[in-house]
Amino acid sequence: MTNKKILIVDDEADFLESFRRTLEAKAFEVITSTSRPEAQDKMKFRPDLLVLGTMSPAGEAATLHQWLRRHPQYRDLPLVVVDAPPGERYLRGWRRGEGMELEADDYFSKPVEPVVLVPRIQSLLEQVTQLIKLLIADDHTMIRDGLSAVLSLQTDMKVVGEAVDGKDAVEKVLRLVPDVALMDIVMPTMSGIEATKIISKEAPQTRVLILTQYDEDENMLVARRAGALGFIPKRAASAQLLEGIKTVYEGKFFPEGFEKPGPE
């Protein structure tokens, strides 16, 4: 089982390091950030929970909070806020008006020992099932319906949209921000390969898993160079689909060896 990822955002080096060591001792995978822009960038690692601490100037934590809650991919992420002490909130914490708009699963105020927060973090993670959000792109209705039926039975996956061609897939990826796009190669209007190129450039947070009846080595090569992380022939989908989805969701290549695109 993959260790849960925790992103800690705080500009106090001592607090950040103490928190990191405490969580790693509990077998969590820890990602750290000291600023809002850096935190937004590190969301690409898909943390399971965010600890939002203090940042200067005041208002940075609230701005990050607003960005998260408006983002279709991150708005449901469990959030624990660690505010500045009352006397320092006008410099590094939550101001009164911002605090009224706060949507968090728990709230603490410094000074607080990281070990005090661990039980609450563990409890929140036990309550949350991280759903892998999926988009199915195929021009055949029966295939889309079949895949959707299979995936709807999975407790950790959710189909958030379907696309009938590559152009439709790009538009829906940009709007719905799925974690994984299942992409056919041969489709009208725009091919799956062209769609993958655009998605990998404009929406890199969405991993593309090619699912096609054309399984020649050449197609695997083209798909990889377009930016896909995985490739499954439809004849093998029943055996490999779920593993492939989970693998590319974690940012890994599927199957093993797919990451080697070969010579130009």
Instruction: Please mark out the parts with pLDDT under 50 across 5 or more consecutive residues, or reply none.
Output: none
The helix count comes to: 11
User: How large is the share of residues in beta strands?
Assistant: 15-25%
Cα distance spanning the termini = 37 Å
CATH architecture of the largest domain: 3-Layer(aba) Sandwich
Q: What is the count of structural domains?
A: 2
**H and E string:** EHEHEHEHHEHEHEHEHEHEH
Give short descriptive properties of this protein.
single chain; 264 residues; alpha/beta; Rossmann fold; 2 domains; five-stranded parallel β-sheet; 11 helices
Task: Describe, in short, the structure shown.
The protein has helices at 13-25, 36-42, 60-70, 89-92, 96-100, 114-127, 141-151, 166-176, 192-202, 217-226, 237-249, and strands at residues 5-9, 29-33, 49-52, 79-83, 106-109, 132-137, 157-163, 180-183, 207-212, 230-233.
Q: What would your notes on this structure say?
A:
- This protein is α/β, with parallel strands linked by helices and 264 residues long.
- The chain folds into two domains: 5-127, Rossmann fold (3-Layer(aba) Sandwich), CATH 3.40.50.2300; 132-249, Rossmann fold (3-Layer(aba) Sandwich), CATH 3.40.50.2300.
- 42% of the residues lie in helices and 19% in strands.
- The chain has eleven helices and ten strands.
- It has helices spanning 13-25, 36-42, 60-70, 89-92, 96-100, 114-127, 141-151, 166-176, 192-202, 217-226, 237-249; strands at residues 5-9, 29-33, 49-52, 79-83, 106-109, 132-137, 157-163, 180-183, 207-212, 230-233.
- The strands form two sheets. A five-stranded parallel β-sheet has the order 2-1-3-4-5. Strands 7-6-8-9-10 form a five-stranded parallel β-sheet, with helices on both faces.
- The radius of gyration is 21 Å and the shape is elongated.
- The mean pLDDT is 89.
